[in-house]
Write a structure and sequence with these properties.
two-stranded antiparallel sheet; 8-stranded parallel beta barrel; alpha/beta; TIM Barrel; globular; 12 strands; 21% strand
Length: 253
């Protein structure tokens, strides 16, 4: 891994962030996280965000950015990311309901990726499970991976959603080496055909196999996330971090 750090996607603790943005960031650091992936700036200016991160001893390992911002406020977004010391920007969603949609989406990702590369940013796309639907014999996610330029379009593998989409994350890591620049480490159980997310180590995800492969094939940051915690969110984040010790090589942290 590029940095000796495990990170939290702050969407996990969005309820607490909404009540006390700075205080929750400090709690995340106190739990033991070394980095955070930002999902909303809490109304902070870039200088305020930078000061908060530094005061907490946290490094920014990414920001989730909506497509409207990429399209309409790119320069301001890029300036903000540089000022807070973050290079990694991720598009969290794009609509895909057909093969043509997937091909068009690949073109959109290429355009954003090239612009990010020119601006000194590293661009990736974050999957859910719907990208694993097949259209005319092609899996939409494969279309995105195969029809984007690997020099400036990367992917953030959400391991849970790959598995729930019906595929083995390890197969994708091997098939598309060095495309997954970051990864969401997210656990789940499948109950009544639905993905019920849980703390890392309490579900069905085979992180003993997945995490070493991510390391081998060039993933730079592991980012813990739980979209729908069934216990208090900071407690969930703490348990997941603690349980990561079962799955990781001690040289990675």
């Amino acid at each position: 891994m590029k940095q000796d750090v495990l990170s939290l996607q702050l969407y996990t603790v969005r309820d607490r962030m909404a009540e006390d943005f700075a205080g929750t960031m400090r709690k995340v650091a106190e739990i033991g996280y070394g980095g955070v992936e930002i999902a909303g700036d809490g109304g902070l200016s870039a200088s305020e965000m930078n000061s908060l991160l530094k005061s907490c001893g946290l490094i920014p390992v990414g920001s989730h950015i909506g497509i409207k911002v990429f399209n309409e406020n790119f320069d301001e977004m890029a300036e903000y990311q540089h000022e807070i010391g973050n290079r990694y920007v991720t598009l969290p969603h794009i609509d895909i309901k057909s093969l043509d949609d997937a091909k068009n989406a690949a073109g959109i990702l290429n355009g954003i990726g090239r612009r990010c590369s020119d601006a000194g940013l590293v661009f990736s796309y974050h999957n859910h499970d719907f990208e694993f639907r097949s259209y005319d014999g092609r899996i939409a996610y494969d279309v995105l991976l195969e029809e984007t330029d690997p020099s400036y379009v990367f992917f953030q593998m959400d391991t849970c959603w790959v598995r729930f989409g019906g595929y083995d994350p390890c197969d994708y890591i091997r098939k598309y080496p060095r495309r997954f620049i970051t990864a969401h480490i997210k656990d789940m159980n499948i109950i009544d055909g639905k993905a019920v997310q849980t703390e890392v180590g309490k579900g069905i995800m085979d992180f003993r196999s997945i995490i070493p492969l991510l390391e081998e094939y060039g993933t730079e940051y592991l980012i813990i996330e739980n979209d729908t915690c069934s216990i208090p969110t900071l407690e969930s984040a703490a348990i997941s971090l603690r349980n990561m010790g079962v799955f990781i090589n001690t040289n990675m942290i």
